[in-house]
Write a structure and sequence with these properties.
- The structure holds 2 protein chains of 2 kinds.
- Chain A is mainly α.
- Chain A is built from 15 helices and no strands.
- In chain A, α5 crosses α11, α6 runs antiparallel to α8 and α8 packs antiparallel against α11.
- The two termini of chain A are 33 Å apart.
- The C terminus of chain A is likely disordered.
- In chain B, α11 crosses α13.
- Chain B is globular and about 75 Å long.
- The model of chain B has no long low-confidence stretch (mean pLDDT 76).
- Classes of the chains: A mainly alpha, B mainly alpha.
């Protein structure tokens, strides 16, 4: 029974993804084939790939997304790690400041989008990388701080106190003791920030046009473009865009499971 | 407070020096914790305060992309609150929110209970279940758009093969459920993982005592497991609510033409960026903000209550 249930769950989880990857290789006629057989037995074609690679800005989009995601994640880490440490160690601001940080997540994206749309238009920052990087910095910062706060709380104060007795200064303690211990936590948070920045759509659609186009934008084009929907092309973009996130997650897999259990078990 | 050897030395040094460098001040015991916060506070003030004041300001005017055209005071708010489309989008948002949460939690608890044991290949299987979380919501909405397609979709093909008539998943009646379905598919792993971690942390003694006393599985679940998990459940509810109130991507990916299933954020998007009515757009944004804060504050209180109850 257990395996039946697990099997069903796995099927439900995987079928959409498998379908997506199989459609990448289909011609439009094959996509519209009726009947279950059409989904499995077909002759794969690389036509879709050829089209996407030669006639669209796909590679540019990938490059942009990569730059934006990595840069914003690095910035988020630089801001959140010290802040989370401060919150965890000394409860700075007595919980209120922490709540304010988290509540920045509650802001409707539109609330931030409208003013910054104006600001960026006036300063000519639309369709540039820094625009999105800054926005993602703001959006991810609260989440990252919250996560890292949980991880920092794991570290026993005694370790730091012992080091202080030994005469280490604050910065040294940070570097030698705290940093190594939070490795997994930082890894998980970084992965989440990367994934979020990579998959984000709302701000990307508003703030980029041509130069800084992000992969997220390349997808709906095929659904709302001319006449019929080009499933094959759309799935190529979607499927390929998914791969970096999957790779990132695969690397972090060990850390993710361990980290999620860490935080929840103690708290 | 423990006495540190370092402290005394520092104090001794201070007495001999007239001026400490900025760096030393910033890294001194008292101010260090605030120094650490400087980047965060800087970003917060820019990105939180500026949009807030901007939107509140704009919401009091009638304005378009080219600028304000007249002070209207509360007129915008009145117009919005009387707009049927606004209330419709609000209702849709909450319906989808409740549906999605219910599904995610139900599936989450069920699967967490199911997998709360050692089994072969568990790491791989659990890892695989993580995939929906990673996919771009927009991408998966597009995929589901096809899967639930009336003629071509895989789901309808399977239904036909089994003998059930095809379902028009994106009709006016079912649209909300389809979107909830997309949400549930993508996010139930989140509940699973959080609850699974929680289950693993539960003390075994209480459960063993219950088994010795002959309690049925259902009874154990109701009286022991559920209350102990309640803080985690509240956390999931809180986090997902914050996310689901501003649901946007699935709407964009599937029902773009259908006004009936519009959610709040999509409504704001349409008004502000398709019609470029910045005045009303800002009004909506401000209203949306207050709504979110109120709801999250309420949920936060429940969370605190649950935390208190679980500590027993």
């Amino acid at each position: 029974m257990f395996w039946v249930a697990t099997g069903v769950i796995l099927i439900i989880v995987l079928v959409p993804l498998l379908w997506m990857y199989s459609t990448m290789f289909k011609t439009p006629e094959q996509v519209y084939t009726m009947g279950l057989k059409g989904f499995i037995a077909f002759v794969p074609t690389l036509e879709n790939f050829k089209y996407i690679f030669s006639f669209t800005t796909f590679f540019l989009e990938i490059r942009n997304t990569f730059i934006i995601a990595v840069s914003s994640t690095v910035l988020v880490m630089a801001v959140s790690i010290p802040a989370a440490y401060s919150f965890a160690r000394w409860n700075t601001g007595a919980g209120n400041l922490l709540f304010v940080t988290i509540s920045s997540r509650m802001f409707p994206p539109a609330l931030a989008a409208i003013p910054f749309f104006f600001l960026f238009t006036k300063t000519g920052m639309i369709d540039t990388h820094p625009a999105l990087i800054l926005l993602y910095l703001y959006f991810n910062m609260s989440f990252a701080t919250f996560l890292l706060f949980g991880f920092f709380r794991e570290i026993p104060k005694e370790l730091e106190d012992a080091a202080m007795v030994d005469g280490y200064g604050r910065m040294q303690i940070l570097r030698r003791i705290v940093f190594p211990l939070i490795g997994p936590g930082v890894a998980i948070t970084a992965v989440f920030c990367l994934v979020f920045a990579w998959n984000e759509f709302f701000f990307a659609s508003l703030f980029t046009r041509i130069d800084a186009r992000v992969v997220s934008l390349g997808m709906p084009i095929w659904a709302h473009g001319s006449g019929t929907i080009q499933w094959g092309f759309m799935m190529v973009v979607t499927g390929l865009a998914l791969i970096p996130t999957l790779v990132a997650a695969w690397f972090m897999q060990r850390y993710i499971v361990r980290g999620l259990t860490f935080g929840a078990v103690k708290g | 407070m423990s006495v540190h050897v370092g402290d005394e030395a520092e104090m001794g040094v201070v007495q001999f020096q007239k001026k400490r460098t900025v760096w030393e001040t910033l890294t001194s015991e008292k101010y260090f914790k605030w120094t650490l916060l400087i980047p965060l506070l800087a970003v917060l003030s820019v990105f939180m305060l500026y949009p807030l004041f901007f939107c509140i300001d704009e919401s009091l005017y009638e304005s378009t992309l080219t600028g304000k055209t007249g002070f209207v005071g509360w007129e915008n708010y009145r117009a919005v609150l009387h707009d049927a489309a606004f209330w419709l989008s609000l209702r849709n948002t909450f319906q989808i929110l409740l549906l999605s949460l219910a599904g995610e939690l139900a599936l989450g608890i069920g699967i967490a209970l199911l997998w709360n044991r050692e089994f072969r290949g568990q790491n791989t299987i659990r890892g695989l279940c993580f995939l929906p979380l990673l996919a771009s919501p927009l991408a998966m909405s597009l995929v589901w758009n096809v899967l639930l397609h009336y003629d071509v979709g895989l789901v309808n093909q399977i239904l036909l093969a089994v003998g059930i008539p095809k379902i028009q998943f994106f009709s006016m009646a079912l649209g909300k459920y389809s979107i909830a379905l997309i949400n549930i598919w993508q996010w139930f792993p989140f509940s699973v993982f959080v609850l699974l971690a929680g289950l693993k942390g539960l003390p075994k003694d209480a459960f063993e005592a219950a088994k010795v006393d002959g309690a049925s599985a259902w009874y154990t679940f109701r009286k022991l497991t559920l209350p102990m998990l309640s803080p985690l459940i509240m956390i999931i509810v809180l986090l997902r609510t914050m996310w689901l109130i501003r649901l946007f991507d699935p709407i964009y990916g599937t029902l773009r033409q259908a006004r009936e299933a519009e959610t709040l954020d999509y409504f704001v998007f349409r008004i502000a960026f398709s019609y470029f009515d910045i005045g009303i757009g800002s009004t909506l944004a401000v209203i949306s903000l207050f709504l979110t804060i109120i709801i999250c504050a309420i949920l936060f209180r429940y969370l605190m209550l649950a935390l208190g109850a679980a500590k027993r």
